Structures are given as C-alpha cells and as structure tokens.
Amino acid sequence: MPMAPRRLQDSAHPAVLHLNLTRFRNYRALRLALPDQPLFFYGPNGAGKTNLLEAVSFLTLGTGLRRAKLAEIAHKNADHWGLVARIGFPPLADRIEIRTGITAQAPSKRLLQLNDAPLSHQAALLTYLSVVWMAPQMNRFFYDGGSYRRRFLDQTVSLYAPAHRAHLSRYERALRERTALLTRDPGQSTWCDSLETTLAEVGTTIAATRLDVIRRLHLLLEGEAIAPLSPCHLHLTGQIEDSLHNRSALEVEEAFARQLREDRVTDIHSAQQGHSARCGPHRSTFDLSLKRARGTIPGMQGSTGEQKAMILALALATASLLHQQTGRAPILLLDDALAHLDQANRAALLTYVRHRVGQTWMTGTTASRSKDFARLQVGEGTVTLGGTHRKSTNKPAKRPRPIALNKRSGKQLGE
C-alpha cells in the first residue's frame, strides 16, 4: 500500500521504482521495474527513449519535457493516455504513487492523483519530488528570440521558487489588461493607476527572484563539481534588474510605477500596434556566455558541443540548487546528453552523474560502458533490462489493468 513519507530525511531522495504506461506515445502498454542506480536507456533513433523521460517529466508541475499538447501524447489514434509511477525514498521504506493522464471526456486537462486522492494543484507534487531535465531541443536557447530565453529562465526559477509561476501569471494578466485599456479607453486613469501599481509590485518581485536564483546558480557553476563541464556565465539585464543592483526593492518599485505613468502616451501608440509596455521584466534579456582561455564569448558563438555543455551545466546546477534547498536531490533526466560532447566533457558529465545523490535517467544510441549504470535496451515500444536482445517482458501479454483516476468515481486515465 503506497504511503506518503512521514518525514523526508536529508538522506532520502525520490526515485521512480515502477513505471506503468498506457497508450503513452509509442507505448501501448508498458510495465517497468527499475533498479536503484543511475539508468541508461539505449537504442536506435525513434525507439522511444525520449518518450520514457517525457513520462517522468509529468511527475512534476508543468507541461512536460517536450511541452507538447496533451492530446498529441496519446498512442496512435487513442483518445486518452495514462501513467502510474511508484516513487520510493531510499533508504526509507515509504512509497507514494502518482497517476496522471487525460481522458476522452477531458482531453485538454491533465488529471492528477496522489495515492488515490485527486490533486487540484500540480505544485503539491513539489512536497515530495522535483524533476530537472536537459533535452536536445533546449539548444534553441541560442537561436530563438528573447521571449524563449526568458521562458527558459522562468522555468528554472519556478523550480526553486514555485510562487514565481503565480507572480508571472498575475503580471501578464495585468499587462494585458493595461494594454487593452490603453487601446479601448485611455482616459480611465484610476483603473490604469491600479494596474500599474500591480505591475510595479509584482514586476519588481519577479526581477528580484530571477536575480537571486541566478546568483545562487553562479556559485554552483563555479564549483568543482560542475565547472569542469562548462565554464559558462549567466547574464540578466533590464531596466528593473539593473536598478535592483544598487537600489532597494521599494525604491525600484516606486520608480517602475512612475515610469509606467510617464510612458502612457507612448504605450497608447504601442498598444494600438499590438505591443505591450516598453518597460518591465517582460522586456529583460537573459543570455549565456562561455569562458575560454583567451576570453569570454557570447554563447551563440560557441560550437554545438560547447552550447550543449552550457545547457547541461545549467541543468546540473539547477539540480544541485534544489538539493540544497529541500535536502532532497531531484530526479535528473538527460536526453542524448553525450552527443556532440568532446572526451573531456563526457568524462566530466559521467563523473558528476556517478557521484551525485539521487536518481539519474540518461539516453543514448549506444549502451554506456560504465558499470555504475543499469543498462536498459529500448526497442519499438519495449524496454529490456540488462542489454540482452530478447523480446521485452515488460510489455504484458494480457490486457493491462485500467489506470483509474479515482477508484470511487471509476473515471479512468487508462484504457
């Protein structure tokens, strides 16, 4: 019988011990028991390695590793999907069970259940575990626009400070309302004053939280555990962030509110063109730079391998930061992490994984030679532990037990 841990000790770290998938991506039905050691999933392209990591990424808040639409995750023409994960906390004997997925009746809503009890807020999962990942598509960081990089930063910040997500939502809502008001009825000064007060207060909090997390990440990036992988530096610039370096938060908030009032005439024209205020954390610039022997260069000028090493280093620093904060190491997902890395960076990454506390999932096209990893071969919809080339026994011959959302209601996340 699953049960929530009575007291999560510093030495107790979440690990997925069993994972059941129903109509999830290319897995019609999969039941997987996992050993308590670093996991390395290998197989040809398209076999379903990333799909396994994506399933684990749904054990925390957010939209998953790929940020895919929920209905797109269903196997072939299925109108539903579900997963069940039993989480252990070695060396404690306690367990929890997380169920999530969609139903045919509500394909756009991810239903969530902890130990047979529905959860209305995803953030409740952070009480028990967090998940950090690195995937190849995250190299878009260096080529997409500023909005993608800000979203990348805010996802990282939200793992450390869950309230950051609520602050972002409140800020964006006030920003939209102000833009609409300036377009529709700019003479409503009282209502505009109220919205600008909200923007100044919440916007300053957003900027301050971002700066605090970046400062903490810098300390970890320069530490001996991560620095060998990639000597990178984080940069966050913007009117609000720059002001916070030498002024109090209250002073910055008041100055931000005054700036918004002064910019109304200019912002009316911008609003008519479909643009928002020209001042605020929604205009901030976040970037990475790479330290080389002859100096520092912008991250976008680095090689493919160097860029990947920077994203990897940031993911490892985030995992270490969460470990420091909660006393529990997050589950770490590293998709195709060794590709494009040179020998030195590969060695640095494997050394980090070998010595880190907490469960790590890695993927690659060929099996890791390290004896520290459990090697799992992935075929088309099958997973085999031990690397033999026999047919997987994890795909049951019998029809799997339905993955129910709620045993009382009978609503199902499975088939």
Distance between the termini: 23 Å
Q: Which strands sit side by side, in order, in the main sheet?
A: 2-1-4-5-6-7
> In one word, what is the shape?
globular
Query: How helical, in percent, are the residues?
Result: 25-40%
Query: In this structure, how is the largest beta sheet organized?
Result: 6 strands, antiparallel
Overall structural class, as computed from helix and strand content, comes to alpha/beta
Report the average pLDDT across residues.
87
Number of helices: 9
Tell me what you see in this structure.
The chain is an alpha/beta fold. It has nine helices and 15 strands. The chain starts with 14 loop residues before the first strand and ends in a 30-residue tail after the last strand.
Give the arrangement of secondary structure elements.
Blueprint: E1 15-24, E2 27-33, E3 39-42, H1 49-57, E4 81-88, E5 95-102, E6 111-114, E7 117-118, E8 131-134, H2 146-160, H3 163-184, H4 189-221, E9 232-237, H5 239-244, H6 249-262, H7 264-272, E10 285-292, E11 295-298, H8 304-326, E12 331-334, H9 343-355, E13 360-364, E14 374-379, E15 382-385
Parallel strand pairs: 3-13, 3-14, 8-12, 12-13
Antiparallel strand pairs: 1-2, 1-4, 4-5, 5-6, 6-7, 9-10, 10-11, 14-15
Helix pairs in contact: 2-4, 3-4, 3-7, 4-6, 4-8
Task: Give short descriptive properties of this protein.
single chain; 415 residues; alpha/beta
Question: In short, what is this structure?
Answer:
The chain is an alpha/beta fold and 415 residues long. Helix content is 35%, strand content 20%.
